[in-house]
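Morning!

This is the sequence you dropped in the shared folder:
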Amino acid sequence: MASVQEIFESKIGGRLTANPDIASNINSVYQFELTGDEAGSWILDLTKSGDYVSQGTHDDPSVTITMTSEDFVNMVEGNLAPQMAFMTGKLKIKGDMSLALKLQQILG
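The structure's back. Tokens below.
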């Protein structure tokens, strides 16, 4: 199982670097607030032309995603459907819901 850091830096960062059109088409800022074993705050800034992923908090994200680090890893690895996570309260979304729906393009 991959770590949260590996997912953000290698998988998501690598995917966006290889396909910058994904970032430019979405052109928004995602804030991830993860709890649990690998708790932390991550920023996915798709308004920039590179260096999309960083740790920390953004002053004005377009959407904030809150979930446990374990559920996040399971979702990215395909073991937890995003829709099911949302419906069961494992995935909480604050902000622009349409951007949350575009996460699938980012997470692969």
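Headline: Helices lie at 4-18, 20-26, 69-76, 82-87, 97-101, 103-107.

More detail when I'm at my desk.
O.
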